[in-house]
Amino acid sequence: MATSSIRLDKELVDRASIMAEALNRTTPKQIEHWAKIGEIMEDNPDLPYEFVKQAIIAKAEKEAGKLEAYEFG
Question: Which residues contact 68 (CB under 8 A, 6 or more apart)?
Answer without folding.
Answer: none
